[in-house]
Design brief:
The complex is a heterodimer of chains A (211) and B (294).
Chain A (H helix, E strand, L loop, with lengths): L1 H11 L3 H13 L4 H20 L5 H24 L7 E6 L7 H12 L3 E4 L6 H11 L3 E5 L3 H4 L2 H10 L7 E5 L5 H7 L3 E2 L3 H11 L4
Parallel strand pairs in A: 1-2, 1-3, 3-4, 4-5
Chain B lengths: L5 H7 L2 E2 L5 H6 L10 H5 L1 H14 L3 E3 L7 H6 L6 H16 L4 E6 L14 H17 L4 E7 L2 H14 L5 E5 L2 E3 L2 E3 L6 H11 L3 E5 L4 H14 L4 E4 L5 E4 L2 E4 L3 H13 L4 E2 L7 H10 L3
Parallel strand pairs in B: 1-12, 2-3, 3-4, 4-5, 5-8, 8-9, 9-12
Antiparallel strand pairs in B: 6-7, 10-11
Classes of the chains: A alpha/beta (211), B alpha/beta (294).
């Protein structure tokens, strides 16, 4: 599929107008929206990998994410019409205002890049706001970030609140941030842990049932 | 006591600066999620005490608790209407403690927002915001404007320009935060040491360098790169390693001795200013000072 390979390449280069045009062309030529989405996600995965390896930097990731967004604008209506779950919502935020929130922002960008609809609640978010927003928006995943150990402890409150409201299993949690470890995630009963922004997008995808 | 102009002082030999503020305040009970700047208003005695400890440890430069004192950062905490007070009091608290025995270095951290085209922030608005903060810092009697922890060279340059126009008489230190990559040190925004050294100097910084990052060992590589590319004096302020969790506490792995052992040779090699960033404490600065006496 020369068109799809080209599309993936344009996405990796962060060429948003190129991606926009080629996505429309691909749709017009009858390529299924699902195949287009797969090519775009493959491109984003390469971007995530290269960022992780320090071959490219944040601006490159941001530009690729913007190109992804442009393409999603065209294929999302088609995916929805075909009953393919597109644009699953993820609620994201830091549990408590950290000194730097770049990690959380990065996870948001990678999730958007991977085709999720991200509801970013920002920093210093109280537990009930995470839960209320997820319920109101019908988001099956809450992603929690913390940079400092003191704030990390508050991740447990979100997990506990989901349990109290009988939402465990229906709304899943993923945690990350500099001091957070896999062990800690298990300790507090979170559903998943991600080491970095690139793996966060993959982990969220893995959490959700395959359509 | 009248201080010798910073650049003249730097010309006579290396200076030991202070260590971290944010991580020490967290250790001393700053509630998670609270802007450290709130303690300038609510716990001024704690701020003054830490300034005193750094002075006693032998720091010749003491930093103000104003890292997050720019409009976009204060807005996050609903504190924008206190901008003038937070920055003015931040300087006054340190000034009253050091009384001319050390330089009062007014901290200016990143705005926390991404500039166009990566983000949505308008460069003019960001520069005006820095100018508002720096006006307040300069009027309160800061000796140095210290722009730090920057990752975007455009934003750092806007801050340096704001400093040069709002505080034309003050020396400006501008430092960025680098990660080591297989191709050498880069900021997360992709700025190399060479670009940083040239760009910050071009914007008008008198002293350039690096702060924060992966610890003192990683910083030796960054310092070396600055020595190759910078034509102005260099400031280096490493973290005490990267933090690790022990139970519910965050522990920085570089002990004062370990920190001093690696940081002291930086001064000997010609770095103008060496201090500490996240995880360093008055004990780290005391240990550093002991190795570079007098």
């Amino acid at each position: 599929m020369e068109t799809l390979n080209h599309l993936s390449r344009l996405l990796q280069e962060g060429d948003d107008s190129g991606v926009d045009a080629l996505t429309r062309e691909a749709i017009a030529s009858g390529i299924p929206a699902e195949d287009i989405l797969r090519a775009l996600l493959a491109g984003m995965a390469v971007v995530g990998e290269r960022f992780k390896e320090h071959e490219i930097f944040l601006p490159d990731v941001l530009l690729a994410a913007r190109a992804m967004h442009a393409a999603m604008g065209h294929i999302k209506p088609l995916l929805i019409a075909q009953g393919v779950p597109g644009g699953t919502k993820v609620v994201i935020g830091t549990v408590s205002g950290d000194l730097h929130d770049i990690g959380k922002n990065l996870v948001g960008i990678m999730l958007q890049g991977a085709g999720f609809e991200v509801l970013d609640l920002g920093s210093d978010v109280p537990p009930e706001r995470f839960v209320d927003t997820a319920v109101a928006a019908g988001a099956p995943v809450i992603a929690l970030s913390a940079l400092l150990t003191t704030t990390m402890v508050r991740m447990r409150e979100v997990v506990d609140m989901l349990a109290q409201r009988g939402l465990r299993g229906r709304i899943l949690t993923i945690v990350g941030g500099a001091p957070v470890t896999e062990t800690f995630a298990r300790e507090i009963g979170a559903d998943a842990y991600a080491f970095d922004a690139t793996s966060a997008a993959a982990r969220v995808r893995a959490l959700l049932p395959v359509a | 006591m009248k201080l010798e102009p910073l650049l003249a002082r730097v010309g006579r030999g290396g200076i030991v600066a202070d260590g971290a503020w944010g991580s020490v305040l967290l250790d001393r009970g700053l509630p998670a999620g609270h802007a450290p700047e709130t303690w300038t208003l609510e716990r001024p005695e704690t701020i003054a005490a830490l300034a005193q400890e750094y002075l006693d440890a032998g720091a010749e430069i003491v930093t103000t608790n104003t890292f997050g004192g720019s409009p976009p950062r204060l807005r996050l905490h609903g504190l924008e209407d206190r901008l003038e007070t937070i920055n003015r009091r931040g300087v006054e608290l340190v000034r009253d403690v050091v009384q001319g025995r050390a330089y009062v270095s007014a901290s200016v951290g990143p705005s926390g927002v991404l500039l166009k085209p990566c983000g949505t922030a308008d460069p003019e608005e960001i520069q005006e915001g820095f100018a508002r903060q720096i006006d307040a810092l300069a009027q309160a009697g800061a000796d140095i404007i210290c722009i730090e922890t920057m990752t975007d060279l455009v934003e750092a340059s806007l801050a340096v320009r704001a400093a040069r126009s709002s505080a034309p008489d003050l020396p400006v230190i501008a430092t960025m935060t680098f990660d080591l990559t297989p191709r050498g040190p880069f900021t997360i925004m992709g700025v190399s040491v060479e670009q940083a050294a040239r760009g910050l100097e071009y914007a008008g910084a008198h002293i350039v360098g690096a702060n924060c990052g992966g610890g003192v060992d990683a910083m030796v590589d960054v310092a070396r790169a600055f020595q190759v590319h910078a034509r102005v004096p260099i400031a280096i302020r490493p973290n005490a390693g990267l933090p690790e969790r022990r139970g519910d506490r965050l522990v920085y792995l570089d002990t004062p001795e370990r920190f001093a052992e690696t940081a002291a040779p930086l001064l000997a090699s010609g770095i103008a200013i060496v201090g500490g960033c996240c995880g360093t404490t008055p004990a780290h600065i005391r240990a550093l000072r002991a190795r570079v006496a007098p």
